[in-house]
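Inverse folding, one chain.
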């Protein structure tokens, strides 16, 4: 099954933290929300690059978003990550 066919609906809007990606329908644990593309790098390397929009994978790695014109991180970089915290 292609996960992209099951994308959840969302909208971009402003919040107290800036622009964010907000769900417009329920999202259950394990649901595919959106594809976030980028380079897998360590937290140390991310700090050296001074990345602003990072997606934390675990205590060792983050995804550093792609920035060239052919491949952009796009809207996923605005995902509010509070649901990732345990």
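Residues assigned per position:
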């Amino acid at each position: 099954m292609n996960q992209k066919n099951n994308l959840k609906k969302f909208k971009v809007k402003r919040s107290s933290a800036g622009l964010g990606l907000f769900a417009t329908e329920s999202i259950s644990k394990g649901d595919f929300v959106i594809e976030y593309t980028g380079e897998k790098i360590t937290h140390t390397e991310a700090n050296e690059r001074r990345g602003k929009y990072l997606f934390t994978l675990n205590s060792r790695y983050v995804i550093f978003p792609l920035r060239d014109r052919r491949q952009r991180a796009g809207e996923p970089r605005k995902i509010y990550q509070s649901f990732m915290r345990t």
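The two ends are 29 Å apart (CA to CA). Strands lie at 10-15, 18-23, 38-42, 55-56, 61-65.
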